[in-house]
Amino acid sequence: MSPFVRDPAASDGDRTPDPAATGRAPDPVTPGATERSLDRTIGRVLQWGIAASMALLGAGVLLMIAGRVDPLGPPPPPFDPAALPRGLVTLEPEAYLWLGLVATIATPSLRVLVSLVGFGRAGDRRMVLVSAGILAVIVASVAVASMVA
Amino acid sequence: MIAGLLMAAGGVAAGVFGSLLGLGGGVLIVPLLTLGFGLPLREAVGVSLVSVIVTSSAAAGVYLERHVANLRLGMTLELFTAIGALAGGLVAFALPERVLAGLFALLLAYTAAVMLRRSLPRPSRSATAASVDRGPVDPDLAADGALEAGSGTDVLDPDAGPSSSPHVPGSRPEVGFVATLGGSTYRVHRFSFGIVGSVFAGVVSALLGVGGGIVKVPLMNIAMGVPLRVATATSNLMIGITASASAIVYFLRGGIDPYVAAPTAIGVFLGAAAGSRLAHRVDVRVLRALFIVVLAYTAWQMASRALA
User: Fold this and answer.
1) Range 64-93 of B in CB contact (< 8 A) with A
2) Residue spans of beta strands (DSSP E) within B28-143
3) Geometric angle at alpha carbon B115, from B109 and B119, rounded to 5°
């Protein structure tokens, strides 16, 4: 089953009936097939994201060694997204290092984005809101840090 | 380039020791970079956050695939840790380094005290103590994720320890949406505690460059009634976004040096993976005793820096 297909047992997204409506305490929650599938998908996203990050950072470190760059020497050029493609082609260590750092920091956010899509397809509106809220905080981090910087 | 190799080696050592002792990488990396390489504390915190993201995400991936981490609970709480981390990341640039050093000294002293307490024999906690001796499941210390990458199988084996909900005196299970955040064998209690504690954990993480598991695991386990192994795995999941929210602030403000971050993060990642494989072959009691001394000495050094 695709990780994002709707779970028939959770068509309205609420796995536990509203106690106020039913007049009884909710049952303990058992993860459904959709959620287990989403767990696996997100787990792979995290592992592949970190693998890609490590590969980029590793390439950058090898290029640092080749270029005899001293980590405690002069600081690297500042992060410039526009300069990354050319730096990657010309094998500049800074390009691989910056891209590796961006990939590392972005991996958890990618996991949240995948969760948002997964919960959305499962019709779990509340978890969609939670996911969107987390992404909003991340966007706020970028915006606030950019303004302050 | 020798400095880079030494940073990678230091990262490997931090990863190995962190995994064997159930500590997160941040508690070890920040002192390593500040006291060992003379980096400014704030820069060391930024580098540490990157390492924390790497190790916790790798561990969380394993935990999720094994269905041990509680995705719904973790995501709901990490909304609040992320808010705390954003605030903490901004505050970190406003605080003098001496204040940060003082706070880090307190964290180190607290960690040493917790490890010391865990070292004392307590028969009633035999199951937990056995797990602690294997490394990363210490309820107070596990969690920053550093080591659990790769060792999740053993640590979180469903038959390896208590899995039912711990008793939470004086509270009732939550209802409504929060009730859906529990698991098949436990329910969530005191969600409001979880919110406040999560914000605090986010602030601590952003200020000191640690994952904050030292706050989250006891919070979920003791206050919210989440089984220890689920709390540990879920904390790992949350740490990624927590550290990411503050790492963005450090990154965009030029607080992360890629020349330092890359070798250190790679070293910690490799060390954590190696440490998880060594966990069953090493008697960590002696190691822990030694490490308590190291932590106490490092706390003293940080305190001296704060008071200088």
Assistant:
1) 64-65, 67, 69, 71-72, 75-76, 78-79, 82-83, 85-86, 89-90, 93
2) none
3) 140
**pLDDT cut 70: percent of chain B above it:** 81
pLDDT of residue B298: 87
Residue ranges in B134-256 assigned as alpha helix (H) = 148-155, 191-208, 213-218, 228-252
Task: Kindly report the number of other CB atoms within 10 A of residue A8's CB atom.
Answer: 9
Q: In this predicted model, what pLDDT tens digit does every residue of A20-58 receive, in sequence order?
A: 444 444 433 455 777 788 889 999 999 999 999 999 999
Amino acid at A35: E
Give CA–CA dist A74/A116, Å, rounded: 42
CB atoms B259 and A47 under 8 Å: no
The type of residue at A130 is: V
Distance CA B71, CA B104 (A): 30
Main-chain phi, psi angles of B166, to 5 degrees: -70, 155
Contact B5, A62 (CB under 8 A): no
Residues present in chain A in total = 149
Contact status, residue B179 vs residue A22, Cβ threshold 8 Å: no
DSSP-assigned states of every residue in B235-271: HHHHHHHHHHHHHHHHHHTT---HHHHHHHHHHHHHH
- Letter for the amino acid at B1? M
